[in-house]
Automatic annotation (TrEMBL):
Its EC number is 6.1.1.19. It is found in: Cytoplasm. The keyword GTP-binding does not apply. SMART domains: Arg_tRNA_synt_N (SM01016), DALR_1 (SM00836). It catalyses: tRNA(Arg) + L-arginine + ATP = L-arginyl-tRNA(Arg) + AMP + diphosphate. The gene is argS. Its main location: cytoplasm. It comes from Microbispora bryophytorum subsp. camponoti. Residues 457-573 form the DALR anticodon binding domain. Residues 6-85 form the Arginyl tRNA synthetase N-terminal domain. GO terms for molecular function: arginine-tRNA ligase activity. This is Arginine--tRNA ligase. It is an enzyme of class 6 (ligase). Keywords: Aminoacyl-tRNA synthetase, ATP-binding, Cytoplasm, Ligase, Nucleotide-binding, Protein biosynthesis.
């Protein structure tokens, strides 16, 4: 089983080598889908300049050397190669996909991939800003696992630091039961803001808070007990959010700032001992080459402050060293807001200077854009506060239930479908745009049953299930064979063959929106097929079996693809 684009790439590269010499056999043929054929290769236009020949002449020479088994070729325009696959080859490949458990998804040599995502702050509520890092990270983790990689999820909680002195003192003031109840209920922001207000306005409270910090850092048993209570009750709240969203993070994936605290001193010692870091104005700093401030002076990455404290850079460097040396990772994906771009560039550069990142390990910042309101500004409440993520998710379910209210479901079924549709709508709306782009949060658009939305794909999948339900047929029992007579059958079969390469591209490029776009195109292609080609009422038995096979394969691809996105599909809609 082979992806059509990969087959054509290999064929054109062989022709390039035969026609112009082996040095050209690795050229990118620039193969793209075409409205004039199945695919179009544009390599002749770029190659012609180097060969100093006319593009059409180069294209014709490639065509003359091309292996045309299972395809036809035509030179068009200024030098395009129009490539059309034969129906029999497409049908054969689609039939093989139907019998393949992986539906054509490749399984390359496995790697260890760390996905660092979500990362809320303990003792604070999750807000809409955490939505994207959580959803995008979870999809990347699912995709890498499906490709056979060993995935290590890392939830880098903000669970350490000087603010806990303030929080612990406020807890003691109002009582453990009241404080922990607020955290468990998801009212962490109110708790934090009250503590902050006292810290800023009450000198006695501020002094107590400052005295509490060295007790925490020094391991005082009672202070650590209170800190652990904070973390446990915060985690209960996080678990609730993750269950609602349907993401795969668990307590076992927590690797917060506190985990690296014992390593920070040694990290600084190693950086200083190896000459990577130096003392500058009392602070220990790394000066990665190429980074300059507004004054055109080298920009420091501070790893130990002048007062002896540590910052985010120290923790992130400790994490890289641990992940490379102890977890033996091949690749680290940091699914973090785009505003942290400079920070990660400098941290990665410093880690390379220290030898912790090297050619065999790849660290990438998967930049996450902002969620905007209808006014084009940061998505907030009318009072200007960040919107609670739990409130947002609850509203999605309520609105989804209103969308399906007139479909005759009993109360329990309606609640379950509303939950699946609401979460699917929110997740798909996020994942369907490039992760580094901003997008406007709009319930009406994302819950629509038409257009490029999660509910549209869920509905398309449910409609295919209804075909088999009406025919009293189990989709898993359908084996084909597949024959292609109608253009809509051919278009659907060809579209289905592209699934594996799209999944591989999502993992390689960390771009989940590619899978969303593919699934939407597939659903639209199936709709055209469904409208043009009767399935259960096909006139001939062989045609009926073939169309059932195409429907079953489409169902499997949609279900697998949506599962990689973390989207559940109702049996009925």
């Amino acid at each position: 089983m082979t992806d059509p684009q990969l087959v054509l790439t290999e064929r054109v590269q062989q022709a390039l080598g035969s026609a112009f010499g082996p040095e050209h056999a690795t050229e990118d043929p620039l193969i793209r889908p075409s409205q004039f054929a199945d695919y179009q290769a544009n390599v002749a236009l770029s190659l012609a300049k180097r060969l100093r020949r006319a593009p059409r002449e180069v294209a014709q020479t490639i065509a003359d050397h091309l292996d045309t088994a299972d395809l036809s070729v035509e030179v068009s325009g200024p030098g395009f190669l129009n490539l059309t696959l034969r129906d029999g080859w497409i049908a054969e490949q689609a039939a093989q996909r139907l019998l393949d458990e992986r539906i054509g998804v490749p399984q390359p040599a496995p790697q260890t991939v760390i996905v660092d995502y979500s990362a809320p702050n303990a003792a604070k509520e999750m807000h809409v800003g955490h939505l994207r890092t959580t959803i995008v990270g979870d999809t990347l983790a699912r995709t890498h696992e499906h490709l056979g990689n060993q995935v290590i999820r890392q939830n880098h909680l903000g669970d350490w630091g000087t603010q806990f002195g303030m929080l612990i003192e406020h807890l003691l003031d109002i009582g453990e039961e009241a404080a922990l109840g607020m955290l468990a209920a998801g009212d962490g922001n109110a708790f934090y803001q009250a503590a902050r207000h006292k810290f800023d306005n009450d000198p006695e409270f501020q002094q107590r808070s400052r005295r509490r910090v060295p007790l925490l850092q020094g391991g005082d048993p009672e202070t650590l007990r209170l800190w652990r209570e904070f973390i446990e009750y915060s985690n209960r709240y996080f678990r609730k959010v993750y269950r609602t969203l349907g993401v795969t993070l668990t307590d076992d994936d927590i690797a917060g700032e506190s985990m690296y605290n014992p390593m920070l001193s040694d990290v600084c010692d190693e950086l200083e001992r190896t000459g990577v870091a130096e003392i500058s104005e009392g602070a220990l700093c790394v000066f990665p080459p190429g980074f300059k401030g507004r004054d055109d002076q080298p920009l420091p990455l501070i790893v130990r402050k002048s007062d002896g404290g540590y910052g985010y850079a120290t923790t992130d460097l400790a994490a890289i060293r641990y992940r490379v040396r102890d977890l033996k990772t091949d690749r680290i994906l940091y699914v973090v807001g785009a505003t942290q771009s400079l920070h990660f560039q400098m941290v990665f550069a410093a880690a390379r200077m220290a030898g912790w990142l090297h050619d065999d390990v790849k660290a990438e910042h998967v930049q996450i854009g902002s969620v905007l309101g209808s006014d084009g500004k940061m998505f907030k409440t009318r009072s200007g506060e960040s919107i609670k993520l739990t409130d947002l998710l609850d509203e999605a379910v309520v609105r989804a239930e209103a969308v399906i209210a007139d479909r005759g479901y009993d109360a329990e079924a309606r609640r379950q479908i509303a939950r699946q549709v609401g979460m699917g709508a929110v997740k798909y709306a996020d994942l369907s745009v490039s992760h580094d782009s901003e997008y406007v949060f709009d319930f009406d658009r994302m819950l629509a049953l038409t257009g490029n939305t999660g509910p549209y794909l869920q509905y398309a999948t449910a409609r295919i299930r209804s075909i088999f339900r009406n025919g009293a047929i189990e989709p898993e029992s359908v084996t084909g064979p597949i024959t292609l007579g109608h253009p809509a059958e051919r278009a659907l079969a060809l579209q289905l063959l592209g699934f594996g390469s799209v999944v591989a591209a999502v993992a390689q490029l960390s771009e989940p929106h590619r899978l969303c776009g593919y699934l939407f195109d597939l659903a639209q292609t199936f709709t055209s097929f469904y409208e043009s080609c009767p399935v259960l009422k096909a006139e001939e038995e062989s045609v009926r079996e073939s169309r059932l096979a195409l429907s079953a394969l489409t169902l499997r691809v949609l279900l697998r693809g949506l599962d990689l996105l973390g989207i559940e599909v109702p049996e009925r809609m």
